[in-house]
Specification:
This protein has about 290 residues and is α+β, with helices and mostly antiparallel strands. It is built from 8 helices and 15 strands. It has 2 domains: about 90 residues, 2-Layer Sandwich (Phosphorylase Kinase, domain 1); about 150 residues, D-amino Acid Aminotransferase, Chain A, domain 1, CATH 3.30.470.20.
Length: about 290
């Protein structure tokens, strides 16, 4: 198995932060974002790496940033290492395929979630309250498609769990006009990608975005429509048997839920077969979306 990348250090650049998956470096008026092969679940970084995961996430984000420019501008500049500042060229081997040069922005600290189908935390909330993202719903079954996609924002956490909030609560921290714009663009992005993926045999059940400001203008940032930020289901299985066969990290979550791990301590190692199957699912998502 190809060696997986646990962390990335570039002595020629200042590391601004090391997230659950990505390392972010300061290159003056630009940032260099590098995706490792780390994987997180239930707010923990797992001790096991997923080979090639960082490359897959980066390739998909580049695909989507280019495909959605007509909807909203984004922070992506290039993933061509040769076009990066010369100071980092000597690190080409580690940067190639898993890094992006992007614009610096002032991050808007809200996770912007679009839900086209009821699953995950939305299903948990619905089972308890009959409400999803502040909207009362009835007669839903797990996996049902909403009549129209829902916008369910959450507070952005860099260390713990994001907390779902209502749109009205979001407007207490984001100016109302900006909040309306972000909600509109979140749903527009989701609808575009949902239709694109559906033609290629995938259902995007839900996804999340981040936005930032450059000179007062709101743009799309971070990653988009990857197996880490979205739920991808096999369309054929969904249509035939209503099976929610996933090509994302839900597969890893499901394995962890099958163990005796209490989610209040350090997570266990992933067995080799779970690692291999996770790589297969991420690769399948990439294959379908780029065909």
């Amino acid at each position: 198995m190809t060696k997986a990348i646990a962390s990335i250090d570039i002595p020629a650049a200042t590391k601004l932060k090391s997230g659950k998956v990505r390392e972010v470096f300061d290159l003056g008026d630009q940032l260099l974002i590098c995706a490792t092969d780390r994987i997180s679940a239930f707010d923990y970084i797992l001790p096991t790496l997923i080979p090639h995961k960082g490359e897959i996430l980066t390739q998909l984000s580049v695909l989507w940033f280019n495909a959605t420019k007509h909807i909203i501008d984004n922070h992506f500049i290039t993933d061509d290492v040769g076009a990066y500042p010369s100071a980092v060229h000597e690190y080409r081997d580690i940067l190639q395929g898993r890094s992006m040069l992007v614009k610096k922005t002032n991050v808007i600290d809200v996770e912007c979630v679009a839900r086209g189908y009821i699953t995950g935390s939305a299903w948990t909330e619905y089972e308890k309250t009959g409400i999803v993202g502040g909207v009362a719903c009835s007669n839903l079954k797990k996996g049902d498609r909403f009549h129209t996609p829902l916008f369910t924002p959450a507070t952005k956490s860099y260390s713990g769990h994001d907390i779902n909030i209502t749109f009205e609560e979001m407007k207490k921290t984001v100016p109302a006009k900006d909040a309306e714009y972000i909600r509109h663009k979140t749903i527009e992005l989701y609808n575009f990608a949902h239709d694109y993926a559906l033609e290629r045999g995938l259902i995007i059940a839900d996804t999340k975005f981040e936005f930032g400001r450059v000179n007062g203008k709101i743009i799309l940032i971070d990653e988009i429509f990857t197996p880490d930020s979205s739920r991808f289901w096999d369309k054929e299985c969904y249509d035939k048997e209503r099976s929610l066969i996933s090509f994302d990290k839900q597969f890893v979550r499901d394995f962890l839920l099958s163990t005796d791990w209490n989610r209040n301590s350090e997570p266990p190692e992933l067995p080799p077969d779970i690692v291999d199957k996770t790589v297969e699912r991420y690769r399948e998502a990439l294959k379908r979306l780029t065909q």
